[in-house]
Amino acid sequence: MADPSGSETLPIRTSTDVVQVRQAVRRAVTQLGFSLVDQTKMVTAASELARNTLEYGGGGTVRLETLQEGARRGLRLTFEDQGPGIPDVERALTDGYTTGSGMGLGLGGARRLVNEFAVTSEVGVGTRVVIARWK
Amino acid sequence: MERIPILKMGEFLLVTIQVDMHDRLALQLQDDLTNRISQTGAKGVLIDISALDIVDSFIGRMLANISLMSRVLDAATVVVGMQPAVAITLVELGLTLPGIRTALNVEKGMELLRAYAAGVASGGGDGGANVGADGEGADGGPVR
Ligand SMILES: Nc1ncnc2c1ncn2[C@@H]1O[C@H](COP(=O)(O)OP(=O)(O)OP(=O)(O)O)[C@@H](O)[C@H]1O
Ligand SMILES: [Mg+2]
Question: Does the beta carbon of A82 lie inside 6 Å of ligand 1?
């Protein structure tokens, strides 16, 4: 679903969709000319957030957008679900906090791997996580 | 069903992860390896992740679980070939991979497993750093 502004929306319904998201993000950051380490950071953050969307959000979507600000280029990812929401976002961001069987690292770890990070969540409505990384 | 192959090499099991694994495939590998260790009485497991271009918290947990379960079954696990960019990202993610022994490549990993099987190296700590450093046998230097 590519449009002229370089944006694309992918479903996150199964664990193979999570693989597709990783691969789409890899393609995007490669095209933007990110260094290998920066590529790896963005793909890893995307993997964590896509899995959260699937596991806790009950599935959703991710939107990939190429950013341009003057000479600066980057990638923004928006993960959205209509799941149960996160009652206490600050707490969810704490390393080691999990309501599942994970290590509680995904959300806080993803925040450390990117330049911009925002969570908006409403209980009973859903969750949106937006991240961006610049070249 | 799709599966990651497990090769038997003498008393060791060898796994080379060559695909971007989805989570169910990773869990399957964890189960398969546990079964193979107990069936074969393998003394060691070598997991080559040099083809993996990311390790996230899920894969990290899988590697930690395999290490733990192999230990319970009296086998050592060594993870080899982590790409530098992956290692850098893991640290920032906050994943410390406790209890996982690592080595630079397959050769060094095999040396480490042989040392464990022979009861030379101790079970704990960062065994990877010892390979070649306290080399047992004058002609037993690292193979490149
Ligand atoms: N999209 C979401 N919808 C609802 N709750 C969420 C969502 N994403 C995260 N959470 C909540 O935040 C907690 C922390 O998430 P985080 O990704 O840091 O850890 P985890 O997924 O539990 O474990 P790990 O990511 O280390 O495997 C989750 O356990 C869950 O309760
Ligand atoms: Mg998570």
Answer: no
